[in-house]
Amino acid sequence: MGDLINDAGIWLCTTVVLVLVFLALLNGLFQFNRKQVLDSLQEPFGKPLTFHSPDDSVRTFKQYGFVYSTYGAILLHSWVALFAIGYIYMILFCWLSYSPQFLAPGFALEYFGGWNGLMAPWLLIFTIDHILGMVLIFTWEAMRTRFMYPVSSLADATHVMIEEELPFMTEDFLVDPDTEGHLDRLKRHGSKVQARFKRAKCRTVVKVDVEKDGARSIEYTCVRYIHSEEDDCFHPTGIVDYTAAQVHEAVRRGGLTSKEAKVMLNACGKNEINVHVPSILEALLTEFSDFTYIFNSIGTWSYMVFSSWNIGLFWLLLTLGSGIFRSLFIVRPNQKKIHELAQLHTECEVLRDGKWTTIRAADIVLGDVVAIEDNSTKLPCDGLVVEGSLVVNESMLTGEPMPIQKMPVEKSDAAVIGKKNLAYAGTACLESSGPHDNKALLIATAVGALTTRGQLVRMVLFPTSVRFKYNDQLPKVYMLLSCYMVILFA
């Protein structure tokens, strides 16, 4: 060992190990304190979340409340900083190992006693850094909550973790305990570890927004959720069911009052579909925060450091080029297009305080009585036809090119509301006839991301999780190849 590494290399390797042990010790103390807080909670941790699936599939979600911790945030970002410092070290000392080529100074080789002495700590940092990168990528959302304190009441939470419960997460490796061998035991433990990683990928952490009036809300999959003090849960807002009597009563009393409209606007938010368009830096970070790039990095720097710089440089440029092109010229432009398609910049007439008022489509709230224009004007919200009739083109929903007529809800307590009375946001109104300036009247029953138009956008942005056997086995293949690489280095 002394021929391969000198005192400088031993000191650097020891320092790296001590830093890891020190961070692990601080994390252990924080997790011990966090567990005590979790055990002291009076109520069950985690509550069901009502979720409107865009494709009408049954999906189960739970919501968990957490309080931000400055100490925990420092610890979490210490691991990120450690990864960044380790990667910079890898790049710098890979270049220094080529001295005197490529203008690399020779002090590093002299200090570490030659190429072998330089490579010993480099390989240690190389291995630790890529393992750390894998863990951060696979468990980032879960790790964020691991460095916050759990709370039993969502009214006290600064962040909410939303977790989708998928059937394959709870699969157990079944085996007869009387015949269980070492291989079966290894498979069972491997299945548990794999299930934990899968659960971590199905978690999303969102920040709680507190309004001036004290109302607490979160936004998840473009849908606004409001905290209810009755059951201490966040519930989606933007959709409501009306009876036939209620819709006709709304028209009779002159629509909503200005005060009612303001309260409803604060509760449900604007009639908009907020599609987040990432910045250039955010798009790049999102793209390169994928485990495939970590695996590519392993191969690239393995070539680089062992004198195959031309192959390594080729792979590095190929990886960076493909990632940058995909994030900035494919993914981000597509998100921009979806953002533009989700916007509806029109004005509508609504009945408020007994008077007809022109407002922006984004200011329509649940319960508003809206006068519908024709001439292929797109409907601003989902709603029930109260008076008059509509002829609409629903090809964007069904693909059916034939126009469909929408009839008003009957003035009867026993009236049954069906699809013939319901018009959908985003569909084109070809003809409108009714009592107000020959326009049909519509009462808003869904706004924002919970309209039919919003559901289509959400279906594109947040598709239902699908299980592929190929995806399940791929991490195992990468793990075997990584272990093989470590053995070759050793």
Major pleated sheet: 6 strands, antiparallel
N- and C-termini, Cα separation: 12 Å
Average pLDDT for all residues: 87
Shape category: elongated
Number of strands: 19
Q: How large, in whole angstroms, is the Cα Rg?
A: 29 Å
Query: Approximately how much beta-strand content do the residues carry?
Result: 15-25%
How many helices?
13
Helix coverage percent = 40-55%
Give structural notes.
With 490 residues, this protein is an alpha+beta fold. It is built from 13 helices and 19 strands. It has helices spanning 7-39, 70-96, 107-111, 115-146, 182-201, 244-252, 258-268, 280-288, 291-305, 309-342, 395-398, 452-461, 469-489; strands spanning 47-49, 60-67, 149-151, 159-165, 203-207, 209-210, 216-220, 223-228, 233-236, 347-352, 355-360, 369-372, 377-378, 382-387, 389-393, 404-406, 422-423, 428-433, 440-446. The strands form four sheets. The chain has a six-stranded antiparallel beta sheet. Strands 1, 2, 3, 4 and 5 form a five-stranded antiparallel beta sheet that branches. Strand 6 and strand 7 form a beta hairpin. The longest helix is centred in the middle third of the chain and has 34 residues, at 309-342. The model has no long low-confidence stretch (mean pLDDT 87).
